[in-house]
Each structure stands twice: as C-alpha cells, then as structure tokens.
Amino acid sequence: MSEKCLSLATRRQFIKSSGIVASSAPFVTSGLLANPPSERLRHASFGAGGMAGADIGSLARSKHFELVAVADVDLKRAEGIRKRFPKAKFYQDWRELLDKESKNIDSVNVSTPDHMHGPIGLAAMDLGKHCYGQKPLAHNLRECRAMTEMARENKLMTQMGIQISSAFTERLVVSLVQSGAIGKVTRVHSFSSKKWGDMGPVPQKEDKIPEGFDWDLWLGVAKHRPYIAGYYHPGNWRKRRDFGTGTFGDMGCHIFSGWYRSLGLTSPLSVVSHGPASNQNNWAINAKIDYVFPSTKYTQDGNVSVTWYDGSARPPKEVADLVNGKVPGQGSIIIGTDGVLLAPHMSTPTLYPAQKYQGFKYPKLDPRDHYMEYVDAARGASGKKPSANFDDYSGPLTETVLLGCLATLFPGEKLDWDTEKLKVTNNVKADIQVGRDYRNGWKPKAII
C-alpha cells in the first residue's frame, strides 16, 4: 500500500485510502441507558492472535456476545480464531472492516500493538462503536486524550484491558487503603522486573516478508522501514519507540491502577527520570521515574511522591526492609502513616508490620468480571459505565504512565505538567513528544 493523500470524497474511498474516519458528524449513541438492553452485542476485533485472541475468548464467555468480524494484518496468526468462529468475516485491513461492517457491529476491541490503539480506537468510536481497548490506551498522550474525549462526547461504553483492576487482589488494595488500614499514604514504590527495552542499534538488514503478512499495514501510522524477522513482529515491538511503550507502558497501567484508584489521584504535577536514556529507536531498560502528585483525602498533607522501577532497578533496601525484604518481581509497596501495604501484582496484598496486623480481618468483596462488565454495559444491561472506562478512569491513568515514558527521553530533567493544556510547560523538546509524527495519510482526524 502506498502513502496516500486524504482527497477522496466518499466515505468508502476515504476510509480505504487514509485509515481515518470520514469527517461527517460522529454518530452518537444517545439514550443508551434508557433503552431496553440488547440480547446481542455484535462485535468486531482488531487483532486475532496473542492478547487479541485472549480478549475474544474472554468476551465470548457471554451468551450475548456475537463475533461478527475480525481484522488482522497477519493471516497466519488469525487461523485459530477463524477456526473457532467460522461465521465471522475476516479482513487484513482494519479500515475495510469498518467500511463494510460498521452497520453490522455495536462494539469493538482494539488489541493490536500499541501504536495502532489510538488510530483504530478513534476511528471506531467516531462511528459510535463501544470500545474495549487494550492497555496502554494509546501510544502517546495526545491520542490518549482524544480517546478520552471521544468516549465522553459520544456517550460510549468503554473499558481498558487492565483486567487486574476488577480482580479481588486489586480491589482489596483499594478497600484497605480507603478504609484507613495503613493510615494516610505518604509514599508509593511500584516496580516490574520485565525488560522490554533494547540499548542496541537497529540491525542493518532486510528480510523477506512472510507470506500472508502485510508489513505495510502493520506499520500503520509509523514511517516505512525494512522488515527484519523477529525484530518487530510478533512480540518485540514493545521495545521499539515507534510501536511500543517499553516495560513501563506494558505494565504501568496494571501496576499503578491499585494505588491510583485507592488514592483518588488525578494528574501528576511533575515527573523526572533517573534511569538511562532511551536511544533514537528503542526504549531503555532499568528505568527509575519519580512522580509528584497533589494530595488527596487518602494521603498525608502536602504532595505525594511515587517512584517507578523496572528491569534491574529496584526499591532501596530501606523500603524492602519495610516488608521484610519480600519484594516480588512486580507490584507496589504503599507506605502509610500507620503501616505498609505490599501489593504484589496478581497476588493477595499483605499488611506490615506483620505483628501489628496479626488477626486483622480483611474485608470480603463480591466477585466482578472485567469482560462481562463491559459486555453488559455495551449492550445497555448494567445501567452504568465499566469500572475502567476511558473518560473517568483509564484515560487519566494512561496519561500518567505515558508521561513517565516521555520523561525517560530526558533523563535528569524535571518536567512540569499542565494536564488541562496537555503540555510540558518547562521543556519545549519534551512538549513535542506529547504527540507523534504520522506517516502521510495516517493521522487520525481527532488529532489536531
């Protein structure tokens, strides 16, 4: 596919040539909660393999779910879903799916590499489609804000794929913090031992593109470059700045979510990276990023500090000692005025010091299903937004994480953040990184 301009007139031609939804007024799903619930949620998936396959399988547990169509640039990775859902229509080009199937679907999931979350999600939501979007919500701050605003303006049901936020373990963290079990929170340390980074240069080679794989469509909004087997697709794109968001973008939305919701946080005031600098093409590893947030009713007076560590970077010994040195590979240590909460990723949280909390009665919580919550909201059955909806929760959460990703490009420089203006106020070069450069013809119309 060549790079094309946006001059064609009809909706069909416009979508096929540009990847951007036509500029007619968006369809708004008005009165969704006032209408009787639908027995069917007609759905399309953008992505078929990997996490996309897992999302389809989880959504399909609902008897109300109907998979109408799937788009994946890699036909081989779509084979499993094609066999499981023989009635669904399959496409390689996501734009063609939206063009041909828009009238037949109510809802989508966007489970692609990070760089296409925003463009595909915005195009689908502009057509009035409810959206289940994988984390991070978008590849950059400007797209993330556009996703948030479009979900709100079009009155859509949305859910970000941070399934842990509906799990008992994270909800227990929220309950313990907000009930005052550790007093007022003074400090948070979050970490992941994953290493989605690469300090090396791009290999100077070009490999044959596999049969059934559309490399140009996979590149999407990113500039053209040679195909290198295994370097980008199917998994290592997370390490590459044009396509992924590194370890932090992969895991930050998961691991931040517990304390972010617990503390009722909004946007950070500033951020500074103390880790190594990313190079021109790849994210760095071993990040250490400090945030300052305004206080809330769950924090001690004054601003609250949060530090993120990934790869081999870990919280200091004095912090590890607060939890008897039992620092897991991934999770958070939440420090309060009266105690400490260790929140391992996907494991049960524990209060410290152990002796103080001996016999402590942990609250009982009702179960919640992240995927079913979305399906029921999207078909109008629940009467409320999903818990990780874009506009109230996961949009601001993702912006927080993406701001940290941005900071790693400017190590040692404190970046002051104005969330209303979506602007780094004290560093012009950093402010440019709030958005991204788009390949000709691929810029979403929602991005000004």
Descriptive notes:
The protein is α/β, with parallel strands linked by helices and 448 residues long. The protein is built from 13 helices and 15 strands. It folds into two domains: 11-164 and 372-390, 3-Layer(aba) Sandwich (Rossmann fold), CATH 3.40.50.720; 168-197 and 243-367 and 402-431, Dihydrodipicolinate Reductase, domain 2 (2-Layer Sandwich), CATH 3.30.360. 27% of the residues lie in helices and 16% in strands. α5 (117-126) runs parallel beside α6 (141-153), α6 runs antiparallel to α12 and α9 crosses α12 (390-407). The longest helix is centred in the last third of the chain and has 18 residues, at 390-407. The radius of gyration is 22 Å and the shape is globular.
Task: Please supply descriptive tags for the structure shown above.
six-stranded parallel β-sheet; nine-stranded mixed β-sheet; disordered N terminus; 448 residues; Rossmann fold; 2 domains; alpha/beta; 15 strands; 13 helices; Dihydrodipicolinate Reductase, domain 2
Topology order in helix (H) and strand (E) letters: HEHEHEHEHEHEHEHHEEEHEEEHHEEH
What spatial order of strands do you see in the largest sheet? 13-12-11-7-10-9-8-14-15
Q: Number of helical segments?
A: 13
Distance between the termini: 25 Å
Form type: globular
Tell me the count of domains: 2
What's the CATH architecture of the largest domain? 2-Layer Sandwich
Q: What is the makeup of the main sheet?
A: 9 strands, mixed
Q: Which structural category do the helix and sheet elements fall into? A: alpha/beta
